[in-house]
Alanine racemase (Bradyrhizobium septentrionale), 443 residues
Amino acid sequence: MNIVTDAKSQLTPEASLLATHPTANGILTVDLDAIIANWRKLEKTAVPAECAAVVKANAYGCGAEQVSRALAKAGCKTFFVATVEEAAVVRAAVPEATVYSLGGFFQNTGDAYARIDCKPVIGDLNELAEWDVFCRRSGWSGGAAIHIDTGMNRLGLTVSEAQGIIPRINAGDHGITLVMSHLASAELLNSPANARQLASFREIASLFAGVPASLANSSGVFLGAPFQFEMVRPGCALYGVNPTPEADNPMQPVVDLKARIVQIRNIDRGETVGYGGTWTARRPTRLAIVSAGYADGYFRAASANDGTRGAEVVVAGKRCPIAGRVSMDLIAVDVTDLDKNAVRRGHMVTLIGEGITVDEVAHHFGTIGYEVLTSLGRRFVRIYKGGDAVAARSDATAEKSEPAAAEKSETAAPATPVAPPALPTAAPAAPPPLPAEPTPPSA
């Protein structure tokens, strides 16, 4: 169910939505203008490199369709996803963009890539050989990226394997549109691993004559110009996660998560709360029972007990602590110190937002902001603010001031995920086939 709220309404977004969707127990608001502002900041930091956008995992839980469309309007031309299915969503949203899939290439997947004009990121010699076979057979030459492992030890050709395909590059029509690697410790400014990976990647990238290179992720953008090459690939920073955890967060917050109070109850001193009775009231206590839990991505690790203070939420503008264990669908919050008239059944409390950052929540969850965002549940109704009236892309090399905020609009998306669009049946027109594949170097 799609719900459009009036951007000029005097009601708050949650009140406006609840007026038309009264069964919503939780509301996740995604600020597309903030995502655009974060992309522009990253773009300016990386000038003259191109600033792509990583929108895998449904744009880190924020909505790949909406985020991709907003960023494309702002000037982003290249997007990275993890799977072909994710690529189909982005392609439908931004038909003219360049889309890479980080998930690699497998035999018999070529047609799926070609139908949506998606470029595979190849990190294995077997993948490269299979891709070459497909390109020769089909005549498709949409291009691919080569992923080289420089120290992550996860995906990618080894440096020696990459050196072995240099004759292919020198042959001319090689079909490689990007050479890339991935930093393992970019968030640690002084990690020696960064310098080692940079040296290794710089050496091998120099051999790929005329092929754009990309190394920097979100944190890597802030390591400086030597790491930026021709393209940077920020992900989490677009969505407000701090890419520089050793310093203040340079990014704008993007998500606001609210859940409804379903009951108010009073307990006596000495009574316990929640599963296991791990939290004991030290005074007569007033509790607000909130309709969110670990099934919604609000982790059980945020629980409080008699010896440990858990996470906090914002109720009526003030921070209040969780009481007891987070359960599957519910959280108990101690609201004893608030005015009784300020807290009522049906009111919304803020789980993320109003000063509670994704990174703070991640700290209580014992994880990172990436996992918080990608775990936010399907039961939340999603509202998208802004992004529909995006100003023309500024010249990042000349304009240093932040662009004026675009007029905001608000659109609520369905609480359940939307199925990806059907893949087109016709492949794009094919340029001449690639030359015969090179003989892979011996391991």
